[in-house]
Design a protein that fits this description.
With 226 residues, this protein is of the alpha/beta class. It has helices spanning 17-26, 40-47, 52-67, 81-87, 100-109, 120-136, 149-156, 160-175, 206-225; strands at residues 5-10, 31-36, 72-75, 95-97, 112-117, 142-147, 181-184, 203-205. The chain folds into two domains: 5-98 and 208-225, 3-Layer(aba) Sandwich (Rossmann fold); 100-205, Rossmann fold (3-Layer(aba) Sandwich), CATH 3.40.50.1860.
Length: 226
């Protein structure tokens, strides 16, 4: 019997090998596919938020994933996290947001949260997700945004090491400010985690918590198929 099939919707051609390896280690026989549209993020940034054209495109991708036989869709970009809530209604298979478990952990840790990102359009959706989860638990969340445009510019100029230097310095400064948690609002920022082992403040990134939840869901789907 074939293993479960997951389709991950992406807004960039970021490294995929670690995602595939992570899921294959935890889900026997899993089939991992990607649908990537690198025009989505520039369009959202230019408009200041998701346009109807972005919503329509992502809805088509979700439908294509379902038609291709996917058992589960993963929305991997926080910037279009709220679009996932819309296109989830257009398909009959489950849709998971990779950043939701991270947001749940942030709410669990406290109410005073630092949100750091290199793309401004990521901060609003991430904050609203944390606040909405807090409301469900009767908790008022206070999120402070920290935008690191210089880090984004360094990455776009082909200097990832400079991006990491800027972000690490900013996160270490946040560690001194008494937040309950520091949320790295972009899944790509997971590469910083090995350098942050000495932090006093919990630093959250969506990759491990998000894809652990995805693996759990896929194993449950596989069990139902047996």
């Amino acid at each position: 019997m074939a293993g479960p099939h997951v389709c991950i919707l992406q807004t960039s051609f970021a490294k995929r090998d670690d995602t595939v390896a992570f899921l294959k280690e935890r889900v026997p026989g899993v089939r991992v596919e990607f649908i990537t549209d690198s025009t989505l993020l520039p369009d959202v940034r230019a408009a200041g938020g998701p346009t109807q054209a972005v919503i329509d495109r992502m809805t088509l991708y979700a439908r294509a994933a379902e038609i291709s036989g996917a058992d589960l869709i993963v929305n991997s970009c926080s910037t279009v996290g709220e679009v996932a809530d819309i296109y989830a209604k257009a398909v009959s298979i489950p849709v998971m947001k990779v950043d939701k478990p991270m947001a749940e952990k942030a709410v669990e840790l406290g109410s005073n949260i630092a949100l750091i990102a290199t793309v401004e359009t990521t901060l609003g959706p991430s904050q609203r997700l944390i606040e909405s989860i807090g409301r469900l638990q009767g908790k008022e969340m206070h999120c402070t945004r920290f935008l690191q445009n210089d880090a984004w510019n360094a990455l776009q100029a082909g200097h990832p090491e400079e991006q990491n230097r800027i972000l690490l310095a900013a996160i270490r400064e946040l560690d001194r400010q008494g937040f309950d948690a520091i949320v790295m609002a972009q899944v790509s920022m997971r590469s910083l985690l090995p350098e942050l082992g000495d932090m006093k403040t919990p630093v959250l990134c969506s990759f491990y918590s998000g894809y652990s939840a995805v693996a759990e869901a896929l194993n449950a789907i596989a069990a139902k198929k047996r």
